[in-house]
Amino acid sequence: MTLQTSLPFEKPVAELEAKLKELEAFSNEQDIDLSHDITQMKGKIEQTLNEIYANLTAWQKVQVARHPDRPYTMDYIKAITTDFIEIHGDRIHRDDRAIVGGFAKIDGQKVMIMGSQKGRDTKSNVESNFGCARPEGYRKALRLMKLADKFGVPIISLIDTKGAYAGLESEERHIAEAIAVNLRESFNIKVPIICIIIGEGGSGGALGIGIGNRILIMEHAYYSVISPEGCAAILWKDRAYSDKAAEALKITSKDLLQLKLADEIIPEPKGGAHVDHEAAAANLKAALLKNLKELSAKSPDEILQDRYDKFRVMGKFEGSVE
């Protein structure tokens, strides 16, 4: 494993990897057998990485979720599906590349798979608007969900967005209404819906494609009503308090599982999904197939009731007033 882009807290690993490269280069140039030292160095790198990732703070997990090398929706689609046929446009305005999706097969089972999409460089980021969908993106997502419902095909939604695009053009085309309609209509879809937060799960932008029978979350992803920076700017008037806000918001996978907002945590490879895309995809696929099998045994009416009951109990607490 070699870190292509190191996060601030990964600096000790990056330094050890640099020393390992020097050691390997010296061994080759001088024709000296340093295999024992190289093996020890690799072991130290793995140990250091394990120690770092076993004790990540909420803010550090947010940074991992935003890692530029992390797999995105299309990476997972290519890794776990076959016969993918992408569907474009919302039939009203245009095709929003911040949300992609279409029919595909996972181990022979037909599904509708869609999700947020970010870019890897300036050109692709501009094309996908950095993963922040406009109204037409959510209307396209609704079109895909209704198509899946029509043909009796389960829906897979991969979420990775810091939020919906809140610019003037989005307001002109009614971004709030588009998301609200998705929330309402998602409860009328009679096929299973499985939502997976693969990176960032931010605000209504995530919720617009986040109503499902199962809410799964990758180990180092986060799901929140607001970004830590936004929360810090509101409460402390200073984004420097983002780490404090991240802790207070309870946005990590463990927090969400404990609060029963997420149903299952999908483990990531050592060092995060960005280190090993194949292993991350394999883990996601295994969790997905397990939940699909469980939901496939339910009738359409049971699917609807299951989804309704799931969201009705969210935010429900027991207590007493004295």
For the record, give the distance between the C-alpha atoms at the N and C termini, rounded to a whole number.
57 Å
Low-pLDDT residue intervals, each spanning 5 or more residues:
none
**What is the global morphology?**
globular
- CATH topology (level 3) name of the largest domain: 2-enoyl-CoA Hydratase, Chain A, domain 1
Q: Could you name the CATH class of the largest domain? A: Alpha Beta
Query: Could you tell me the mean pLDDT?
Result: 92
Structure commentary:
The protein has 2 domains: 8-55; 62-312, 2-enoyl-CoA Hydratase, Chain A, domain 1. Helix 9 links the parallel strand 5 (193-202) and strand 6 (214-218). It is globular. It is built from 14 helices and 8 strands. It has helices at residues 11-30, 35-54, 58-65, 73-80, 122-127, 135-151, 168-172, 175-186, 203-207, 228-235, 242-249, 253-258, 277-296, 300-312, and strands spanning 82-86, 99-106, 109-116, 155-161, 193-202, 214-218, 222-224, 264-266. Strands 1, 2, 3, 4, 5, 6, 7 and 8 form an 8-stranded mixed sheet that branches. The model has no long low-confidence stretch (mean pLDDT 92). Helix 3 packs across helix 11 (242-249) and helix 6 packs parallel to helix 8 (175-186). With 322 residues, it is of the alpha/beta class. 48% of the residues lie in helices and 15% in strands.
